[in-house]
Amino acid sequence: MDRIIKLKPVFQERIWGGTNLNSYFGYELPSENTGECWAISAHKNGDCEIVNTEYKGKTLSWLYKNHRELFGNISNDEFPLLVKLIDAKDNLSIQVHPDDNYAKDIEGEAFGKTEAWYIVDCNEDTLLEIGHNGETKEQVKKMIEDGKWDELLNYIPIKKGDFFFIPSGTVHAICKNTLIYEIQQSSDITYRLYDYNRVDSKTGKERELHTKKSIDVIKVPQKIDETIKPKMEVINNSKVTIYADTEYFKTIKYDIDGSFEIMNKAPFMLCTILDGEATINEEKFLKGDNFIVPTQLKEIKIFGKITIIVSTL
Ligand code: ZN
Questions:
Q1: Rounded Cα gap, residues 204 and 288, in angstroms
Q2: How far is the CA of 37 from the centre of ligand 1 (A)?
Q3: What is the mean pLDDT of residues 220-245?
Q4: Is 3 part of the annotated catalytic residue set?
């Protein structure tokens, strides 16, 4: 099959979520507290449905299982990546994710969670929590046990267009007034370290913390002060920005004005249109559309004015 595969997102309600996924991307949301759009996902907690081609109505996990040839016949038992759009109206909990080994041994899951964020939009005074100020594991443990969050946590100011790489074991939190594109390993394991003692209005209780597992997986030291410096080039009026080239995923943003061809050299490409509209291989695409380019489709021909972000293995 050599067609673009379009997907229907799965939305997730979160206590910190809002309505920006509607106001920015135009999605119809299930709730006023929609935190996450699982835009390209085959994870069991939010498996996207295919909306075109002969596979219309099937899920991405089904397609991956039954037509591995569309994904370059890669050997992973489960689809390895997950693309999300996240609207933080309020602060997310301070959290950390395990690596592959810990996820397999302790949780019986296929993948740990290394992730990366492109800041789609944020307020002028928005912060991000990334890394920590502890110098040894003992010191980190003590600060957690004593609740010395101001000393432990490391906040930095962010702006639209910044990109952050969050390897497993990194303490992090998206803070309020941030809209994010996230590429991550296909995992839903989050260890909540601190939730500001906030009470979930639905349950009347604080959400569960995972202090021991958090301390297990936190890497030390972890001083992180700035955004990734991407590689950029301008080709035919269009800007190509390479943000991530890691063992887990590669992420490139294309700001296209006019016509442009993206060559597909990966097993598959995961594409999200962040802005504008365009014709891609003679079909119309809009801001908020998400699709997969299968192995067999070796290039996509774009004509229009769009910002498209592409992640691959
Ligand atoms: Zn995370």
A1: 34
A2: 14
A3: 93
A4: no
**pLDDT tens profile 269-288:** 999 999 999 999 999 999 99
pLDDT for 280: 98
Give the span between the Cα atoms of 220 and 202, in whole angstroms: 36
Q: What is the C-alpha separation between 76 and 124, in angstroms, rounded?
A: 41
CA angle centred on 232, ends 294 and 158, rounded to 5°: 95
Exposed, middle or buried, 30 (CB in 10 Å: 0-12/13-18/19+)?
exposed
Q: Which member of 68, 192, 198, 207 is catalytic?
A: 192
Gap from CA of 215 to ligand 1 centroid (Å): 15
Cis amide leading into 98 (omega within 30): no
Q: How far is the CA of 185 from the centre of ligand 1 (A)?
A: 11
- Which pTM was predicted? 0.96
- The Cα–Cα gap between 7 and 178 comes to 24
- As a whole number of angstroms, the distance between CA 143 and CA 257 comes to 50
Domains of the chain (ranges; CATH) run 5-217 (2.60.120.10), 231-312 (2.60.120.10)
In one letter, which amino acid is 278?
A
SS3 assignment, position 64: helix
Cα of 263 vs centre of ligand 1, distance in Å, is 30
Ligand 1 centroid to Cα of residue 14, in Å, is: 14
Say if strands 5-8 and 290-293 run parallel, antiparallel, or are unpaired. antiparallel
